[in-house]
Specification:
A five-stranded parallel β-sheet has the order 3-2-1-4-5, with helices on both faces. It has a five-stranded parallel β-sheet with strand order 10-9-11-8-12, sandwiched between helices. Strand 1, helix 1 and strand 2 form a beta-alpha-beta unit. It is an alpha/beta fold and about 475 residues long. The chain is built from 18 helices and 17 strands. The radius of gyration is 30 Å and the shape is globular. About 35% of the residues lie in helices and about 20% in strands. The protein folds into four domains: about 100 residues, NAD(P)-binding Rossmann-like Domain (Rossmann fold, 3-Layer(aba) Sandwich); about 60 residues; about 110 residues, Cobalt-precorrin-4 Transmethylase, domain 1; about 140 residues, Methyltransferase, Cobalt-precorrin-4 Transmethylase, Domain 2 (2-Layer Sandwich), CATH 3.30.950. It binds S-adenosyl-L-homocysteine. S-adenosyl-L-homocysteine binds next to helix 13 and strand 17.
């Protein structure tokens, strides 16, 4: 993060604007909206600034900037059309510890001004760190569409009741749940419909009802986070991610996905490394039960889909047994995500009429799979957890009659910016993978559909490969 976004209270505070042109007028206008006491210094004023002076809304010193202008100033905007003057303002302000913004000169800025959506008291601010103000405005445009005008009134209503609710509902979790029911339920709808008085009355009523309510039991959301790319989340997953009180995640959930969970929700890592079982399955089950019993909404976040090699079934069996409410949100499983991003359709009328998902996880150094079934023609095999067992798997397939030249691919860190795809044959894949420095998670796809990649690859030839190889994009799977 290059900048810390903050919202600053400037009511009644002296702010200095250096310059008298149109840009200065626009910035001054913003400062006035925030209630600042604006003092301008400029040898000449354009019509915008002149009007503000004439209306007595700002002070003005006629002349060039000099250091004493900074006395008693909380914030400075340098908007003159002389770069040297702006630079001097910036230097002096900075040496006094007064935050300074220099229009169109990010290098001299101590703070920058975002594009804003104003639904006061709701404010959304967007910044691209100065990289692209146009992009910031495009994003703001989308937010404008997304944030109903009535949000301001809804927030104002919430502000009005905030103290009262705090006094009546002491427990922070209970209180948050109360507010979520209010802000995402019928009361909010009343505000949107312009029935503010009804909303106020219903809120009072809800507060009375909630007052004696017993501690609610929590709930567990078993959510599939998809294979890595955050764009692959479902709307439902995202909504629950943003409302859960606590997050229990495993190692396959990418950092970028995890960053979309509620900021203040504690994250508990329940990853299962091969050697070092961070939390054995039984304690994960027990943990989910305990957290839900505390009244929390627990997000159990899993890579891919929770019901595909995800032990999701085992976890909710325990919950069901304990009478704890839960919901299951499907995710895009690695097979679907990796196949799409590698340009390998898993079925195709000319190649494969069926597709099987198997685990290549080794037990006692061997892989036990139904080899006869797997070597049937016209099907695609997708192998999860197959990196370590790859040589054994390929040998067994060939031993059971699969042609050695059957196309095979391995997708590493599928759907992420660092995705790599190795294509070879069943006979040669283990060797080509051994020569590369491959990191789990990896998915293996075997069958003639792999050949289609030559024509259908789109991700790595396009944006993906050009993206940085920044390690933050990696899924940290220690396998
Ligand atoms: N529930 C998950 C699978 C968990 S098993 C799902 O539906 O996808 C873990 C295995 O999934 C890994 O060993 C790997 O084979 C596969 N996998 C998960 N994410 C992957 C990714 N981004 N790229 C490649 N393989 C992945």
């Amino acid at each position: 993060m290059d900048y810390l976004p903050i919202f600053i209270d400037l009511r009644g505070r002296r702010c200095l604007v250096v310059g008298g042109g149109e840009v200065a007028a626009r910035k001054t206008d913003l400062l006035l909206q925030a209630g600042a006491a604006v003092q301008a210094v400029a040898p000449a004023l354009g019509p915008g600034m002149q009007a503000l002076v004439d209306d007595g809304r700002i002070g003005h010193r006629d002349g060039r900037f000099h250091e004493p202008d900074l006395d008693g100033t909380q914030l400075v905007i340098a908007a003159s059309d002389d770069r040297a003057v702006n630079a001097r303002v910036a230097e002096l302000a900075d040496s006094r510890g007064v935050p300074v913004n220099v229009v169109d000169d990010p290098a001299l800025c101590r703070f920058i001004m975002p594009a804003i959506v104003d639904r006061s008291p709701v404010l959304a601010a967007v910044s691209t760190g100065g990289a692209s103000p146009v992009l910031a405005r495009l994003i703001r445009g989308r937010l404008e569409a997304l944030i109903p005008a009535a949000f301001g009134r809804l927030a104002a209503l919430a502000g009005e009741f905030r103290e009262q609710v705090r006094r009546r509902i002491a427990d922070p979790t209970q209180r948050r749940m109360f507010w979520e029911r209010v802000l995402a339920g019928p009361i909010a709808e009343m505000i949107y419909a312009g029935r503010d008085a009804d909303a106020r009355q219903s809120l009072t009523q809800a507060l009375d009802d909630n007052h004696d309510a017993r501690v609610a039991t929590g709930e567990v959301y078993l959510v599939g986070a998809g294979p890595g790319d955050p764009d692959m989340l479902t709307f439902r997953a995202l909504r629950l991610m943003q409302q859960a009180d606590v997050v229990v995640h495993d190692r396959l959930v990418s950092r970028r996905v995890l960053d979309l969970t509620r900021r203040d929700a504690p994250r508990i890592y329940a990853g299962k490394k091969r050697a070092d079982h961070a939390l054995p399955q039984e304690s994960i089950n027990a943990l989910l039960v305990r957290l839900a019993r505390e009244g929390k909404r627990v997000l159990r976040l899993k890579g891919g889909d929770p019901f595909i090699f995800g032990r999701g079934g085992e976890e909710i069996e325990t919950l069901a047994g304990e009478g704890i409410p839960f919901q299951v949100v499907p995710g895009i499983t690695a097979a679907a995500g990796c196949a799409a991003y590698a340009g390998i359709p898993l079925t195709h009328r000319d190649h494969a009429q069926s597709c099987v998902f198997v685990t290549g996880h080794l037990k006692d150094g061997t892989v036990t799979l139904d080899w006869e079934h797997l070597t049937q023609p016209r099907q695609t095999i997708v192998i999860y957890m197959g990196l370590v067992g790859l040589p054994i798997i390929c040998r067994e397939l060939i031993d059971h009659g699969m042609a050695g030249d059957t196309p095979a691919a391995l997708v590493e860190q599928g759907t992420t910016e660092v995705q790599r795809v190795f294509t070879a044959t069943v006979a040669t894949l283990p060797e080509s993978v051994a020569q590369a420095d491959v990191h789990a998670p990896t998915l293996i796809i075997i069958g003639s559909v792999v050949r289609l990649r030559e024509k259908l690859d789109w991700f790595e030839t396009a944006a993906g490969r050009q993206a940085s190889l920044d390690p933050q994009f990696r899924i940290d799977d220690p396998k």
